[in-house]
Amino acid sequence: LDAAFSIGPISIPGLQTHFLMEESIYVLLPIHHPLSSKEVLYLSDLCEEPLITPNIKNKGYSSLKRAFEKKGYLPHIAFSSSNPQTHFRFVEKNMGISLCPEHWLLFLNDTVHLKAIMLADSEKRKIYLFCDKLTKNQGMVRLFSKIMYLVQMLMYGKEARKRKQEIDRQHHTI
Asked: Which one, out of 91, 94, 131, 172, has a CA that is 20 to 30 A from the CA of 35?
């Protein structure tokens, strides 16, 4: 194993872990959905909604299911997939709303028919880089850390740009 990324922390003998970033869970829904006017969403907002979640084998699925159960809610899971494009297509066709990790927002390609809203009461996911403890290439670890920092800045920049466009549109219609 040279390197792997995963939600963590995980302790595996012979591997070292490096924290890279935290990411929020977002709710992806059509722009005309009744919940799209909210600034943030909560698990209680989603109880009656058909949900598109990560695949059952994905760690994100189990953490989302636990979050619902912890609050005493039973989620209505309509579809599961770990493919971002499948989530986007299903939401565009009004087949449900998606619960997706923040890094998937980079793949939206400024889709105007969908809106992403942060899920406020879910735990942030911690992303780690795993590599062999004996690796001599510590430069690789530093490089991945820098790349993930840049990715995170791009995500926040894209979200800020979308927010500004939304405010400009609202201002223009007034």
From this structure: 172
DSSP labels, 34-95: GGGG-SSB-HHHHTTSEEEE--TTSHHHHHHHHHHHHTT---EEEEE-S-HHHHHHHHHTTS
Which distant-in-sequence residues (6+ apart) come within 8 Å of 6 by Cβ? 59, 127, 128, 130
3-state DSSP assignment of residue 3? coil
Q: Report how far apart, in Å, the C-alpha atoms of 56 and of each of 50, 59, 77 are.
A: 16, 8, 11
81-111: per-residue pLDDT in tens?
A: 888 888 888 999 999 999 888 888 877 766 6
pLDDT digits (tens, 9 = 90+) for 62-84: 778 888 888 899 888 898 888 88
State CA 137 to chain mean position distance.
30
Two tokens, residue 112: 């105007």
- Pairing relation of β-strands 4-7 and 125-132? antiparallel
In terms of DSSP bridges, do strands 76-80 and 50-53 run parallel, antiparallel, or are they unpaired?
A: parallel
